[in-house]
Amino acid sequence: MSEQLLILTSSPHIFDGDTVDGIMRAVLVALIPSALAGLYFFGVHAAWLMLACMAAAVASEAAVQALRKKPITVRDGSALITGLLLALSLPPATPVGMGVLGSTVAIVLAKQLFGGLGTNPFNPALIGRAFLAAAFPVQLTTWNVLGGKLAQFGADALTSATPLKLWKMQHVTSSLGPLFFGNRLGSIGETSTLAILLGAAFLLARRVIDWRIPAAYLGTVALLSALLGQSPLFHLMAGGLMLGAFFMATDLVTSPVTRLGRWVFGIGAGLILVVIRLYGGLPEGVTYSILIMNGFTPLINRATTPRRFGEVKARA
Amino acid sequence: MALGSFRGGVHPRPAKERTAGKPIEPAPRPAQVVIPLAQSLGAPAKPLVAAGERVKAGQKIGEAQGFVSVPVHASVSGKVVSVGQALNPLAVEGPAVTIAADPEDEWVELTPAGDLEELPPEAIRAAALNAGLVGLGGATFPSHVKLSPPPEKPVDTVIINGCECEPYLTADHRLMVERPNEVIFGLRAIRRAVGAARAVVAVEDNKPDAAEALAKAIPPGEAAGVEVRVLPTKYPQGAEKQLIYAVTGRKVPPGKLPMDVGVLVHNAGTAVALAEALRTGKPLVERVVTVTGSRVKEPKNLLVRIGTPVSALLDYCGLTGEAGKLVLGGPMMGLSQASAEVPVTKGTSGVLVLSPEEAQLPPEAPCIKCGRCVDVCPMSLLPLFLAKYAEHGLWDEAESGGALDCIECGSCSYVCPAKRRLVQEIRLAKQTIQANRKRAQAAAGK
């Protein structure tokens, strides 16, 4: 044994099997039900949009890293998630070119400009969506259906608005069945609550995401809407809240690392969402509620740093 | 959170199955031992022998220097080959006595301390010191110092740490199963030395046979004062502060000692060694070592003479395939070694030989701020930020973030999906902060 070369490292010498790549793969798997639901309800165009957004995200990430002469890390799967999440948050008839542009902005401006994976303060997919909403306000609020199951429902489904828009403009509250199963207008991945919950259950069971953020976010919205005389179930399922609560607010990089901080983050996002929906000009508030709380994340981490084991509160 | 555990911690694969059922057997007496004179925290011992001299097993060959120091004894009879420098498991050279063993195994005359019920506390402390007793869990802090709490810090609870929460290791487990009477005797002696009322042996619930054996070993008259507590299996359940909290609900404040909350913790192996010292007068010249790992052909729990080269134990147990890493201690906190020629010391609880694949550190990815290190840190620190400060040399930030509270259990590095070297960076921060403090003190003293 003395002739053999031994590896010298500082302890520990054993490691848990979970990896960053594994976490990213799990998130992609968890998004499959929502992607399939989008394909089913909105047709082939939705599939092209999802593929284009993912391809643009991967290509732009690789391009930036090549230009910066950094190792190309697209294999970690994080860019695929950004592309897919962006597509799932877009209206089903969004032109493919628009999706590609949004995806590129998400990766280049919101992620790589800050240094790449782990360093971005804001969720890239949401930045991409916010960019498109500002650049193309008409297209991002137009709910045409180009194919799929919903197209078969006829003119009514094609021309009417999303449940939230109907509620905001015409004070009509949609029935809950379509909100749960997804046979209604909305962004590609947000309409089927069922599909989102399937993916979320997988992520929670695998402990990829912490239950505290969705619990706090959804709980705050439900509680406040009930207190303000609204239907809590309608508000939970009508817009992009479910998708945002389980897949965007829980983005590990841009949410707090402490347990208490996650409660604060979720409650804050819930408050902002309700204020936007009930008192703001927009029918939806998921994007901005999460982005605003992303901005507070460093502060929340600082303010919710746990007391060290055995530390006694300093007397003022 | 229910009492009986602590916040955080991890559940690594126990990997104890290969040795948990194997009785302790004496390792073959080595041809030569290298006995370091610095085997405890504190000052190294001063050599009492010279090259060429014949020594008996159990003979004192190094004298304690100061209060925080212990004597060192010959573990074999034979001829002193040299008194010089030798490599020790801390990867540094230190003063050591090399003895060529003779076949007689002749011992010095051993004198028991007398009946425990009549021994004054001072006699128990003296026996611990004379036997060269140190904490056998790995920290090697001199036992007699821990047995001497100042009068203003009364100890009411004594805990024997039988958790052995490190994966792979089964040395304490086997001691508790095979020699429960001595564990309990040692516990009662420690309790008597510090005048505590409550005495507890804490065992993780993955060792029910040990808990049962210990419970049976409690003398009938002592049932009220001595108890066996079974704790959930979780790493680092055996970390001193976490153990005290699990058993008593008391939290040792940062920078304080267990005696500040009226508690004293000793390892199960230390209790057995103290029992031996009192009952027979035998000094600490051998200890139980678990030799295991994927590259060990026949893993064993061995009773090993201090100073035995690790290579002799590996020859005895056999190796299979290429070795990638040699670790002394457990896989979570043990020290990797460059050579199997290092000697077993009082602090060596295990010898692990891992394969080259197991030995490689997994590749690092960027931190994705998942917070798992925060969830598992038993000291409630934020390891990801402390490590970041250390990477950037921000020592003041690391200090105010609590780097010095880190117990270096390694749970953060273990659980990190990005395989960041978290505890390694925090260790660097601790060392730098302490070195800076010392330098500042020296400058102020001028």
In sequence order, what are the helices and strands of chain A, one letter per element? HHHHHHHHHHHHHHH
Any idea of the CATH class of the domain at 116-280 in chain B?
A: Alpha Beta
Low-confidence segments of chain A, given as residue ranges, are none
DSSP strand count of chain B: 17
Terminal CA distance of chain B:
50 Å
Strand content of chain A: under 5%
Describe the sheet with the most strands of chain A.
Answer: none
pLDDT averaged over residues of chain B: 94
Instruction: Indicate the overall shape of chain A.
Output: globular
Q: How confident is the prediction overall: mean pLDDT of chain A?
A: 91
Q: What's the CATH topology name of the domain at 116-280 in chain B?
A: Rossmann fold
Main beta-sheet strand count, sense and barrel state of chain B: 6 strands, mixed
The secondary-structure class of chain A comes to mainly alpha
Number of strands of chain A: 0
N-to-C CA distance of chain A: 60 Å
- Estimate the helix proportion of chain B, in percent: 25-40%
**Strand adjacency order, main sheet of chain B:** 1-14-13-17-15-16
* Count of individual domains of chain A: 1
- The value of Rg of chain A in angstroms is 21 Å
Short characterization:
The complex is a heterodimer of chains A (316) and B (446). Chain A is mainly alpha-helical. Chain A contains 15 helices and no strands.
Quick tags:
heterodimer; A: 316 residues; mainly alpha; Ammonium transporter fold; 15 helices; B: 446 residues; Rossmann fold; six-stranded mixed beta sheet
What does this structure look like?
The complex is a heterodimer of chains A (316) and B (446). Helix content of chain A is 59%, strand content 0%. In chain A, helix 2 packs antiparallel against helix 3 (78-88), helix 4 (96-108) crosses helix 5 (124-135) and helix 10 packs parallel to helix 13 (241-248). Chain A has helices at residues 20-42, 44-67, 78-88, 96-108, 124-135, 148-151, 155-159, 163-170, 176-181, 193-205, 212-227, 232-237, 241-248, 259-279, 286-303. Chain A has a single domain, classed as Ammonium transporter fold. Chain A is globular. Chain A is mainly alpha-helical. By secondary structure, chain B is of the alpha/beta class. Chain B has helices at 121-130, 143-146, 171-178, 180-194, 208-217, 240-248, 268-280, 310-317, 356-359, 372-376, 383-391, 395-400, 411-415, 422-445, and strands at residues 25-26, 32-36, 46-47, 54-55, 60-63, 72-73, 78-87, 93-101, 157-162, 198-204, 226-231, 263-267, 286-292, 300-305, 325-328, 335-337, 350-354. A six-stranded mixed β-sheet of chain B has the order 1-14-13-17-15-16, with helices on both faces. Chain B has a four-stranded antiparallel β-sheet with strand order 2-8-7-4, with no helix packed on it. Chain B has a four-stranded parallel β-sheet with strand order 11-10-9-12, with helices on both faces. In chain B, helix 4 crosses helix 5, helix 4 crosses helix 7 and helix 11 crosses helix 14. The radius of gyration of chain B is 22 Å and the shape is globular. The interface between A and B is large, with 42 and 75 residues.
